[in-house]
Amino acid sequence: MGCDAENLTPSKLVASCLIGGVLLGASVYGLALALPDGPLGFRRRRKKRPVRVYMDGCFDMMHYGHCNALRQARALGDHLVVGIVSDDEIIANKGPPVTPLHERMIMVSAVKWVDEVIPDAPYAITADFMKKLFDEYNIDYIIHGDDPCILPDGTDAYELAKKAGRYKQIKRTEGVSSTDIVGRMLLCVRERSLCGSPRNSSLQRQFSHGHSQKDEDGGSGSATRVSQFLPTSRRIVQFSNGKGPGPDARIVYIDGAFDLFHAGHVEILRLARSLGDFLLVGIHTDQTVSEQRGKHRPIMSLHERSLSVLACRYADEAIIGAPAVVSRDMITTFNISIVVHGTVAENNDYQKEKDNPYAIPISMGIFKLLESPLDITTSTIIRRIVSNHDAFEKRNAKKSESEKRYYEEKSFVSGD
Ligand SMILES: *[C@@H]1O[C@H](CO)[C@@H](O)[C@H](O)[C@H]1NC(C)=O
Ligand SMILES: *[C@@H]1O[C@H](CO)[C@@H](O)[C@H](O)[C@H]1NC(C)=O
C-alpha cells in the first residue's frame, strides 16, 4: 500500500501510512504542517522535516543564562526561531530596557544555537501570534523556562500553547539573572560614590540573593562582585565547539575583558573572524581586569565572561584566563597569524610607548587595528544603567524580591 495523498485527509493519511508501514514520502512533507494536533511523538519520528522550535524573550542585558536557555531550546528541535520583544512592549510591561532592540537583535542573532530571529515579538503570546507562529513560521513547539510566566490578568502566558500540545519546557539556568547583574552594577556605582568607605554589606545583601557573600569572590581582587555562578566543566564543554583549527587555517587572535558581553563585542568578533579561518579569543583574568579598570571590575567573573564569548558564533575557541601581554611563545604555540584590537575599547594600551602588551606582535608586523563597528563599551552599558538609576532600582527591588523567594524555596535542580 502506498500513500495516496490526494484521496486522504491528513489524519487518515498518517494512519494508513503507519498501517502500511511505509515511510512518508517526500511529496507528503508539506502536508505534515497541516496535520491536526494530536499525539505528536510517533508522527514526528517518521517525519523528515526539521522540527522547528520557538522561544521568545526580552534578552535585555543578555547573559550566559539566556545563551544556555537558547542552547537547551535548540536541542529540542532542529531549527530555533527566536522572538525578540520590542522596546515598546518592554517599556509597557517592565520599564525601560537597557539595550535597544537593534542591539538585542545583534546579540541574539550571534548566539550559535539561534537559526532565525523575529523582531518585535509580543510580550505575551496572543492567540493571533501563536497562529502566526504555527501557520507562517511553521513552528512545531513553543519553548519556555520552568519559571512560571503569569500575565497581569493572572493567566499563564503559555496556556494556549500548552492546550494545543505544542509546549515544551526547559530548566532555568542557575546562578545568574539580569536583576542580579544590574544589582552588581548599581552596587558598584553606589559604592564608588561612597568614595573609599568600606563596602556596604547591607546593600550587597539587598542585591544578592540573601546569601552572605563574605569575601568569596572567585579569586578576583574585587570584593564587590556578587556571583552565584558555579562554573562546572560540563557547562564549559556544552558551550565549546570542541574543534581546533583545520590544517593551514589562518588563526586570528583577539584579547580583552569581554565584561558584560554586548553588541560591540559581537561586532568586533565578527570583524576579527572575517580576517581568518579561526578566531581565538583571549579572555583576561579577573585580576588583570581589576588592575586595568579598578577594583569594581569586572562585573562578570572570568567563567561567566568566557561562557558569553563561547556562545558567540564568531568565536572558535577561548583562552580562559589569557595573559595581559601577547608573548612570542603564545604566538608560536597557537600559530597565530594576526593579532587584532578594536578602536573602541576601554584600554588603548596598543598606543603605549612603555609596557605595550602588543609590542611583540607589533614588532613582528602581525598587529592590526580594527575599526570598531559600534561605539559601545562595558562603561556604556554601566552608564545606561546609572542614568536610569531610579527606574532600575525600583524595577530591581521588585524583581529581586521574587528572585530571593525563588532562591529560598528552590530545591535540587536536575537536568542541563
Ligand atoms: C549601607 O546602606 C544602607 C542602605 O542604603 C544604609 O542605611 C547604611 O547606613 C549604609 N551603611 C554604611 C556603612 O554606609
Ligand atoms: C600556521 O598558520 C599558517 C597560516 O597563517 C598555515 O599556513 C600553516 O599551515 C599553519 N601551521 C600549522 C602547523 O598548522
From TrEMBL:
- Could you tell me what reaction this enzyme catalyses? phosphoethanolamine + CTP + H(+) = CDP-ethanolamine + diphosphate
Q: Where is the composition biased (Polar residues)?
A: 198-210
Tell me the GO BP annotations in alphabetical order: phosphatidylethanolamine biosynthetic process
A cellular component term (GO) from this record? Answer: cytoplasm
Alphabetized InterPro entries for the sequence: CCT, Cyt_trans-like, Ect1/PCYT2, Rossmann-like_a/b/a_fold
| Regions crossing the membrane | 13-35
Protein name (record): Ethanolamine-phosphate cytidylyltransferase
Name the source organism: Kalanchoe fedtschenkoi
